[in-house]
Amino acid sequence: MRKFSRTLLLCFSMLLIGWSSASMAVNKSNTVGKNSDTTTAVEENKTVKTADLEDLQQQLNEIKQQVSAASKDSQLSALNNQAAELANKADEYTTILLPNLAQIKTQLEVVGPAPEPGALDESAEVSKKRNSLNNEKAKIEKNLDYAQTLKSNAANLSKQIIELRRNALKTQLALDAGSILSSRFWSPIFSPLPEDQLKFDDFWQQLKDTWSAAWESDVFWGSLSLALLSIAIWLCSRRLMENVLVWISARVFPDGRLRRSFLACAMVVGTVVTIYGGANLMYLVFARNYQLTPLMQGFVDALLGLTIFSALIVGLGRALLSIQRPSWRLMHLPDPLAHALRRYPAAMAILLMLFGTIEQMNSVVGSSVSTAIFGNGIASLLIGLLLGSATLRVNKARKKLRAQDETVESRSTIVGLIYLSATVVSVVILLALMIGYIPLARFLTYEVVWFSIVLSCLYLTTKLTGDLCESLFSEHHASGKWIKQAFNLDGRYLEQASILFSAIGRTILVLLAIIALFNGTYGSTTPMTIVDKVIEIMGSDSLGKINIVPANLMNAVICLVVGLYILRTARRWLNTKFLPKTAMDSGMRMSLVTLFSNIGYVLVILVTLSVLGIEWNKLAWIVSALSVGIGFGLQEIVKNFISGLILLTERPVKVGDLVSISGVEGDIRRINVRATEIQLSDKSTVIVPNSQLISQNVRNVTMGNAQGVATIPLIFPLDIDPEQVRDILLEAYTQHESIQDMPAPSVSFSQLTPDGITLSVTGYVSSPRIVSRTKSDLLFDILKRLRVAGVQLSSPQNLVVQNLPAEIAANYTDNAKKDDA
């Protein structure tokens, strides 16, 4: 922080010296030129007619109309030149009228006032001369006021045009403002415009007056005390604050990740508070006993806002890199990489503070567009170089680690995207500056800074939210034990609450981050601005009134991609983290995940259409066309879709059930929007339309946790002992591990025929899916037991006829041949 303050002070000093010297030099030349022009005009002693002033007024009105219709920077630049020329012409007329007015006043003094009543009468010629001079004086004064009004209006119009051009620099990204290698870009330094010098002279004079008033003798010691206290806060309080935060993290919070995430977030907040607090004390040095001018007040307010953002960048860098305490680092970042990046956050903050101050200075004084372009170009150049240098330094540090045979973790997808984006953006910024697209470079510069701030804050806050919920509902911590005892909850409910509240908190943070990314910008957005935008979005009726414009297309695409990513993440979280902690079976979980996905896709599409700008009241023709299509070609698709929703809500069958339909029997593996996947016993899959599961008879073998029945019918000879066989069969069933005790196995006497005795043994198993395996095991065991007991199964009877007569045998042979034929 000490280096940060010294560097910032040095940069401001150099800036003040450069601008002051240029201002003094050009101001002298302007004064000499202006005096010579005035002398020439007086010597010529021209006259100004009312018609000339009315002609200027007409030109001014035409310029105003053209400004309202202008859309290109070249048009605004030409109109600004016309307004400036008009203001100069009005000033020239004023310069002509002032000597004429002075001459008339001198002549009136020579003629003298009108005689008082009772005095000697004056001649008619003198009275006529006085009246003529008074009329001429009134006419000149009227024209003079007219000319001064025209000059003021033209100057204000020129200032408004400059403001429009400066704002256009932030929105017209394809504006060719000239390459940084051209002489036009560097003209504000080597040949500044006279009007800019006048504006900056006034600004520096007000700054000097503010400085002098703060160090007058009667307030000197108070100002010195506040200044020293501010510097002490900047230099010393940070280290003391971090030590206190480490002590609080180690003593107050339980063991776990919450200590690290709390310390990281607290370091960011503490850094912002100390730097911003010191800046406010420094502000009191100049403003406590002195009323700042509106220009100075606006400039100081902008500086305080820039201080917050610069302090936030420094705090985020310290919290994420954690150079002093590597074991407390949240990110999986090797120490060499962290040390390679340690100076970049402070350097980025210094550059943004310095050039943000220059930009705010240009804004409050109303400098020309060329001066604003110069400041934006230099800022984009240095920040682009700094960003490219950071990526190269990280890559160099990783190569050095590999050369030293140290393990380097491979980049994750998100880290790889961040690295690639930083590299591409730095290259694009430099190319845009080279070819002249300075507004594009400025936009990319501030957007990459803003995205970095928002995403870094999102990372820290999501980590803190997850760790806080995990610690709060943990059974091993005092808070979790108290909640468990107070509400008499089971441990799994605490886990569910931890996951659920963590997801809710992270979802809110992600939504706030998305709103901040698309509606905020560096230097002007505050937390209250984001909150106001959220309230505006939630409370507006924009869904029914917005229109499609080309600018919304990119936002709609980004919204669709982000929505699908969030939906995919939420589905994975629901399927892998939250639902497994509940008492639901796998089928119910799969049905809920599918239903959640279907609803999520609908919501993503609706939100995307909203961002795109589609008005719902104008979709009647689309709905009509869809209804006709549904009536013809889409009937089956819609029927299967509705059937799928019925399956997911009523759940007559669910994922994991063993069903039989149309001769197909297997396990349901997935219920999709249109069809259901059934896996057969041979591991093949049958796709069944959902409408068949609703309209046809379906046998659900496992519905209601049904038990399986293992029944084996056996045929024995007539000469066996049925009671002995019954005992053998019951013993085999009872001793098998898959046969349940309740209901108990039983043996029934099914049939008594000349072929033998039919006995059926029945037992129940836990699931129909193991019936086939259980019956196979039982048959092996039963055959083994029957052989040991000497009991045989019934065999088919054969009838053998011997010693047939010849005639009967011949007839039998002929009949057999006919049957074969």
TrEMBL record:
GO CC, one annotated term: plasma membrane
Region ranges (Disordered): 115-134
Ranges where the Mechanosensitive ion channel transmembrane helices 2/3 domain occurs: 594-635
Chief localization: membrane
Pfam family, one: DUF3772
Coiled-coil parts of chain: 46-96
Location of the Mechanosensitive ion channel MscS C-terminal domain: 718-792
Residues covered by the DUF3772 domain: 147-206
Its membrane topology: Multi-pass membrane protein
Transmembrane intervals: 219-241, 262-286, 298-321, 341-358, 370-392, 413-437, 443-461, 548-567, 588-613
Keyword field contains Signal: yes
Family classification: Belongs to the MscS (TC 1.A.23) family.
Name of the protein this chain belongs to: Small-conductance mechanosensitive channel
Source species of the chain: Pragia fontium DSM 5563 = ATCC 49100
